[in-house]
Amino acid sequence: MSSIKSLLNRRRFLQFSLFASTVGLSWACAENRVQSQQKKVLIIGAGIAGLAAARELQQNGFQVTVLEGRDRIGGRIYSDRSLGFPVDLGASWIHGITDNPIGNLAREWNIAIKPTDFDNILLYGSNGKLISDRDIDSSYEIYEKIIDRAESLAENSEKDLSLAAAIQQSLTSQTLTPQQTQLVQWWMNSELIIDRGADLENLSAWWFDEGESFDGDDYIFPQGYDQIINGLAKNIDIQRQQKVMEINTSNSGGSVTTDRGNFTADVAIVTLPLGVLKSGNIKFDPPLPAQKQAAINRLNMGVLNKVVLKFPQKFWPEDYHGFGYLSEGEADFGEFLNWSLYSEKPALMAFTGGSFARQISQLSEEEIIDRIMRILRQNYGDRIPEPESAIVTRWNQDPFAFGSYSYIPVGGDSSDRDLLAEPVNQRLFFAGEATSRDYPSTVHGAYLSGIREAKRLINSNM
Ligand SMILES: Cc1cc2nc3c(=O)[nH]c(=O)nc-3n(C[C@H](O)[C@H](O)[C@H](O)COP(=O)(O)OP(=O)(O)OC[C@H]3O[C@@H](n4cnc5c(N)ncnc54)[C@H](O)[C@@H]3O)c2cc1C
Predict the structure, then answer these.
(1) CB 3.0-4.6 Å disulfide test: which of 42, 182, 380, 448 passes with 326?
(2) Ligand 1, atom 4: closest residue by C-alpha
(3) Residue 308 and residue 212 in one domain
(4) 94 in any annotated domain
(5) What is the CATH number of the domain that holds 29?
(6) Which residues line ligand 1 (CB under 6 A)?
């Protein structure tokens, strides 16, 4: 590309000039950029991957602009304060504090964090009675054995199979009481379906346990995860409400068309969520390489949704970190976090995952709250108060995410994440949680993927 104009048709160029002058942007022409040796990078998406890449590149002398479709930054990190206190509707935890880069940022920036003690929970049977610690512990041991056996069955299988099928085979020699069955199902819901955002029928038995993890406890940001986002975003040029629709690249640069204008650069880093890439809403010209597109098609987006309920006062045992409710038969709301331990406000956070989360997201807020209140009344009595206010997330319906995080279904492979991460023509780079082979589906994985692509660009002889 000898000049920016050659990438734009005249109409687009006029549109862009108009837009640039309205918002006071000044875009150097390509020749000037080359002279100034300052490479211009467009980063698509102001989630943690995009902001991590932006910060790293800007610190290394690149000229960076981030294009964000929403009217806020942070993406799947979203701290809401409409209930009168901060609560995270997207990511909540730093998973594994030891050497975790997000924990390091929190320490560097003096941001308060608080651990969650997942052993400190109460579990209630479907009759509303508390389950003893002994029964909880022994059911967890049974759960672990079942999963270990399912994993080794899968390892010895020549073909991948669903985790549900592998568990089914591993269960054949096991006789469980009805309560043990319910408890094991509760663990599977909590540790697998909610954690991966997908049903056992959809998870690959070969890959459900992919990736690495950091040691140590999981920590919450009582004052909001967005403190990390705001720290990373400092002094970065971020253009909000720029919904990217088309990404064009050539051997010498590229242009990005949003619903409000056109932007050009030497390179772009795409941090769009897998769900957005799968939707086909973004046009790539030239189209993405067949292998990358096939990886996008094979990987899947899971769903974890939350319901936050604020009550006039606490009616649950105060010192426990979480509460579990076993259900008979049909899936139901079974896992709650005691938010009052983090904000000192009387609030609970309920979690749903997989197809149950998708099903629930079709209901009205009123219907969802009714359903939760039925469970809470069963366990704490009819006299408990109604919530004063509530927030229901529907990440699966969010057009800027189409889900919560990625997982590998049967037929997928963790090398799909590498294919997704592969740059195209040294002009288009890819970051985001789904591109992280080591730490998929996490904040730290997304963050490290942004740094990875920034370094790739810094080290390239572009
Ligand atoms: C409910 C929930 C709970 C979670 N819990 C945890 C947790 O406790 N711990 C943890 O480590 N991880 C958790 N995660 C996962 C974690 O939030 C993500 O892995 C991480 O935030 C992804 O960052 P990212 O930068 O890859 O993507 P995103 O944060 O999604 O950033 C992508 C950005 O692109 C923007 N975008 C999308 N489409 C367009 C478009 N067309 N044009 C322009 N911009 C666009 C989006 O608005 C977004 O800002 C959770 C996620 C959810 C949803």
Answers:
(1) 182
(2) 91
(3) yes
(4) no
(5) 3.50.50.60
(6) 44-50, 67-70, 75-77, 90-93, 95, 243-244, 271-273, 276, 304, 306, 395, 400-401, 404-405, 432-433, 441-444, 446
